[in-house]
Amino acid sequence: MRYEDPWYDALASGWGELGGAGAPVPLPVAQAGRAQREEEAAAADVYLQVQGSAAFQEVRGRYRRFVVPACVVFFGWYVGYVVTATTAPGLMARPVAGAVNVAMVAGLGQFLTTFLLTWAYARHARLRRDRAALELRWDTQELTRGIRGGAS
């Protein structure tokens, strides 16, 4: 049984897989006949149709509404840290507690905000995008399966 999932990334071309007797399976000869080209064109049309759908646009919009502001805020925080470190060394050298100074606290804050942003992105994806994206994927697979004659 061949797995026709375009998101399946493990040896999708068949290269390197072992045959029944342990011999490598040869790569299929490029015999892109007319029927195969028509099938590929029809499958491409399915993906274009899905890309233009309201559900896809909603998933992409949710993604952008999170990622763009998060990137702007994080980049601003990073540039602010670098600019402050280069233009105000006296401020960055000010002790906070013992040998720990403002620069060390801000540098550790960079790591902390990286982990917080990663957690927030994963949570946002899980709560707001994953279910809709999986439904889109399922619908796309159903449409392409119909084009390929029900082959799975």
Radius of gyration, Cα only, in angstroms? Answer: 25 Å
Strand order of the largest sheet: 1-2
Termini separation comes to 7 Å
Briefly note the structural class of the backbone. mainly alpha
Low-confidence stretches: none
Order of helices and strands: HHHEEH
The outline comes out as: elongated
Find the count of extended strands (DSSP E, 2+ residues).
2
Describe the largest sheet: 2 strands, antiparallel
The DSSP helix count reads 4
Helical residues, percent: 55-70%
- The average pLDDT is 79
Strand residues, percent: under 5%
In quaternary terms, these chains amount to: single chain
Describe this protein's structure.
The protein is built from four helices and two strands. With 152 residues, the protein is mainly alpha-helical. A two-stranded antiparallel sheet has the order 1-2. α1 (34-51) packs across α4 (102-147) and α2 (54-87) packs antiparallel against α4 (102-147). The chain is elongated and about 75 Å long.
What are the key terms here?
single chain; about 150 residues; mainly alpha; two-stranded antiparallel sheet; 4 helices; 2 strands; elongated
Write the layout of secondary structure elements.
Blueprint: H1 34-51, H2 54-87, H3 89-92, E1 95-97, E2 100-101, H4 102-147
Antiparallel strand pairs: 1-2
Helix pairs in contact: 1-4, 2-4
Short description:
With 152 residues, the protein is mainly alpha-helical.
